[in-house]
Amino acid sequence: MEKTEPDKEAEKTLINKKISRRFLLGGAATTAIVAMQSSLGKWIQVAAQQPVLKLDDPTKRIGPGPGAVGKRSAFEHPVRIKSDTSSRTPLQDLYSSLTPSDLHYERHHAGVPVIDPDKYELLIHGMVGKPMVFKLHDLKRFPSVTRTCFLECSGNFRSGKETMTPQEICGLTSQSEWTGVMLSTLFREVGVEPKATWFLAEGSDAAVMTRSIPVKKGFDDAMIVYAQNGEAIRPEQGYPARLLLPGWEGNTCIKWIRRIELSDESFMTREETSKYTYPVKDRIRQFSFEMDARSIITYPAYPNQLERGWVEIRGIAWSGRGKVIRVEVSTDAGKTWNTTRLQEPVLDKAHTYFRHLWQWTGDETEIMSRAIDETNYTQPTLRQLLDARGTEMSGYHMNPITAWQIKRDGKVLFKPESWK
Amino acid sequence: MPKPFNIGNKYTAIITGSLLILVLGAYSYNAGAGKPAPAFNADTAQWPASFGFGREATPQQIAALDIDVRPDGLGLPTGSGTVIQGKAIYLTKCIACHGSAEKVAPGVKLPAPVLVSDSASKTKAIGNYWPYASTVFDYIRRSMPYNLPGSLTDNEVYSVTAYLLNANKIIKADEVLNAQTLPKIAMPAQKLFITDDRKGGPEVR
C-alpha cells in the first residue's frame, strides 16, 4: 500500500500542474487578427494565435485581488507522502527549520476526530488536591507561552533502496511554533500531590490513546497547546488542544487531550508496552522518551541532479536533549569532517538549519552529516547503534547518520544500509 | 446569526489576553535579568494563589471518563468473562481484521503473528511481548473493535481478553477472568522489560 501512495501523490501533483498552467494562461492565448500573404500573393487578414509569452508577461495583466485566505504559488507543490496511518513532511522542499502547518507530519491511530471547541473539556484528576475541568476558553485565559520545537515520531526511520528522498527516510519530523499554557500552571491550579510520580495523558479520538508520563516532565516544560504557527492548532495536530512534551517522542504528545490522571505508578498502556518499546540485546527497553540527536542533509539529496562547481550543502539537525551545538558534514565518505554554519537562533529541542559550502569537481563520493548536542552526544553510525543494541533493535529511536552517494554524472542517491 | 457581534467580542478578548501576556512577560523578563532563568518557566511571583479558571470536577464527570486499568488491577470494572464466550465474540467481532487460525481471510492479519505468539517467529505478540494482562483488557475496551470502538460490554472485554490469553497459552481454557483474577496473571515477557537506561551524554546506547 505504502508503495503505491507516492505514485498517487505524484499523479495528483501532475494534475495540479496541468490545471495550474491552464489557469495561468487563462485564455491568454487569445486570437488576434494579423495580416498574412496568401498563396496567390494577396494580403489577407487571418485569425492567428498571439504568442503565449507576450500575454504571460505579468506586467501586462492585472492579477487577482486580495483573498480571504492565502494560497501557495501555483508553481509550488510540496506534498506530504501518506499511508493509511501517517503522512510525512517533504523535508527536501523546505527552506528553513519551520514546517508550514499543512505540511506537518501526521500520525494517528484511529483517524482525526471532529471536536467542537465549545464542548471541549480537559479533566485533571487523580492524586490532586482538587480535581478540575477546564474548557478551552479557560485554558486560553491562563498565562500563555509560545515556543518553537520539533516533534518526531520515534518510529521515524526508513531504509532499503537508493531512490529514497529525505521525506521517505525521515519525514516523520516537523517543527512548529506552539502556543498554550504550561502544564505546571494547571498542576498548580489543581494542586498535585507530592506522592504523584506519573500522569496518564488520554486523547479523545477513537483510539482513546493513552501514555504514562513522569510528573517531573509535566513540571519541567510540558505544555497544553492550542495554537500552532500563530493560528489555532490543526485538527490533525490535536485541535482544539494537545499535550506537547518538547524533545520527547511524538507518541507521548497526546493529541485531542481530554484527561490527565495523576498517579503513583505508570499505567502500562498499549502504546508503552506492545508499541514504542524495542529490544536492546536481551532486554526490551521501555519508556524511552527523549529523541537522540540526529541530522539529515536535505540538499543535495535524491532526486537532485548535481552540477559541478559550488554547492551549498543544507539540512536540518535536532536533539531532544537540548540544543544542537555543532553539525559536521563530510564530503569524503566520512574520512574528514567539516563544521557547518548553523542558522541562528539555535533553539532548545528544535530543528536547526545548517549549511556548508563545498566545491564538487565531478568525483564520485559520499556526503553525510552528524549532529552534536549540548550533552556532547554525537549522532552515531548505524554500526554504532547495532553494536549498542544488537540485531533485533527494531525501528524505534533510530537516528543513524544518513549518507548520500554522489555519482560521476551528478546523480544523488541514498545509501541504504542493512543490518539483518 | 449574530456572528458580527461575536467578532467584536473576540477582538476584545484577544487584546485583553495580549495585554495580560505582555504584563506577565515583562515580569518574567525582569526576574530573568542577571542570571539566565529557564526560558519557559514563567515568574509566578506575581500570580494569585489560584486564577479561578475552570471548575471543580464532579465524581460523575470523573467516573464517565476514568476508564484506565493499571497492572495492579486498579480501574478494573465488575463483571467477568470466559474463554468460550470470548471465542464466540472474537469470531463475530474481531475476525474480519485479525483472522483466525482456522480461517485465513485474504489480505487480513493472521492471528499467529499479531495476537498469538508463534514460537517459530520472533514477532511481537501478546504472549511473547506484552508485559501485563491489564493492558490487553484496557486496550480492547478503549479502542476495539476498530470499526465500532468502545462498543463492547465489560463482560465481553473480559471474555475476549480470556480468549486471547488462552490462545497464547497464558491461562487455562476453563479460567474465568474478573477484577480479582486478571491482575494475578503473570505475563512471560514482563521480566524482559527495563526502563530506559540511556543516560544522556556522549554514550551511544
Automatic annotation (TrEMBL), chain A:
The keyword Metal-binding is annotated on this UniProt entry: yes
InterPro entries: Ig_E-set, MoCF_OxRdtse_dimer, Mopterin_OxRdtase_euk, OxRdtase_Mopterin-bd_dom, OxRdtase_Mopterin-bd_sf, Sulfite_DH_SoxC
Keyword match Metal-binding: yes
Protein name: Sulfite dehydrogenase
Organism, as annotated: Mucilaginibacter sabulilitoris
Recorded GO MF terms: sulfite dehydrogenase activity
Limits of the Moybdenum cofactor oxidoreductase dimerisation domain: 288-401
NCBIfam families: sulfite_DH_soxC
Keywords: Metal-binding, Molybdenum, Oxidoreductase
Highest taxon above the source species: Bacteria
Gene name, Swiss-Prot/TrEMBL: soxC
Residues of the signal peptide: none
EC number, as in UniProt: 1.8.2.1
Annotated ranges, domain Oxidoreductase molybdopterin-binding: 109-267
SUPFAM superfamilies referenced in this protein's UniProt entry, alphabetically: E set domains (SSF81296), Oxidoreductase molybdopterin-binding domain (SSF56524)
Cofactor: Mo-molybdopterin
Gene3D superfamilies: 2.60.40.650, Oxidoreductase, molybdopterin-binding domain
Taxonomic placement: Bacteria, Pseudomonadati, Bacteroidota, Sphingobacteriia, Sphingobacteriales
From TrEMBL, chain B:
InterPro entries reported in the protein's UniProt record: Cyt_c-like_dom, Cyt_c-like_dom_sf, Cytochrome_c-type_DH
PANTHER family: ALCOHOL DEHYDROGENASE CYTOCHROME C SUBUNIT (PTHR35008:SF8), BLL4482 PROTEIN-RELATED (PTHR35008)
Domain named Cytochrome c: residues: 81-168
UniProt entry keywords in alphabetical sequence: Heme, Iron, Metal-binding
Pfam families: Cytochrom_C
Name of this chain's protein: C-type cytochrome
Organism phylogeny: Bacteria, Pseudomonadati, Bacteroidota, Sphingobacteriia, Sphingobacteriales
Organism: Mucilaginibacter sabulilitoris
Gene3D superfamilies from the UniProt entry: Cytochrome c-like domain
